[in-house]
Amino acid sequence: MVVALKKHWLVLQKTSFWSTAKRYQELLAVLIPQNLHTRYRGSFLGVYWSLLNPLTMTGLYTAIFGATFASYYGDSIINYTLAAFTGLLITNFFSGSTSQALGSIVANGSLLNKIRLPLPVFPLTMIGVNVFQFLVGSFPLLAIVTLVNSQNIFYIPLLLIPFLALVLVCTGVGLFMAALYVFFRDLGYFYEIATFILWITSPVFYPAEIVPENIQPFLHLNPLVPIIESLREISLQSTIPTMESFARSFLGGIIILAFGWFFFQRCKSAFIDLL
Asked: Which intervals hold domain ABC transmembrane type-2 (predicted)?
């Protein structure tokens, strides 16, 4: 694999912007399958293990909170269950992809000391692995829920719009955390607390209506909230989110991605000395 990566990088250094983008794509095409193969080698269910956590947590939330919060979901425990499931898919994707991106540069330090490679490709690989897991494992289940609720296949491709906003958010946060982790190795412990705060401030297992009015504006600082709301509108209510809702999701994603990319590029020259 090292020889293949080195070949890709030597070509990358001699090409234009669009050719560079294509070569990034080629590197990701090597690294993502390699990572998936390593992660699930010998596993019976493979990527479908990624469904175990959201399904288990959905069952627990329904058992504990279902009867209490059903009145906020049309007096239906089933609706509450589906709302909790869609929220968990979003928060789990964020937590998993950004946590894996965080350590990706440090984990490949020995490789980077042997050959020169574009550094962003490692956190991007972690995001790509999780995108593949989501599309193969979770998305078909989400599509079935949407089709059953809406009776209209038109709503299924719409699910990809909030998911794309989620990928932008995760990529920006992943690049930022991967760069910061090179300098501060204790960051992993702090990031566990940060992801917990983001999870508890996302209306995953509780309806946003129960949050006190003076606290609700703070929930909208959480970039996952508009994404969760858009996904639920499409999959559970069979309505198309407003342009304002889509704009909020994408604007937050683009700002976070731009900030993460800029921070990564500013710091990357110091990485090799610390790896």
From this structure: 45-267
In the block, residue with structure tokens 């639920």: 232
Residues 137 and 160: their CA atoms lie apart, in Å, by 14
The mean per-residue pLDDT over the stretch 216-244 comes to: 88
7/9 Cα distance (integer angstroms): 5
Spatial contact of 91 and 204, defined as CB atoms under 8 Å apart? yes
Residue 55 neighbours by CB under 8 Å, 6+ apart: 85
Contact 93, 171 (CB under 8 A): no
Share above pLDDT 70 across residues of the chain, in percent, rounded to a whole number: 93
For 203, the token pair is 């209306």
HEC profile of 180-242: HHHHCCCHHHHHHHHHHHHHHCCCCCCCHHHCCCCCHHHHCCCCHHHHHHHHHHHHCCCCCCC
Question: Residue 150, Cβ neighbours under 10 Å: how many?
Answer: 18
**Considering the entire predicted model, what is its pTM?**
0.88
pLDDT tens, position by position, 195-221: 999 999 998 999 888 888 888 888 888
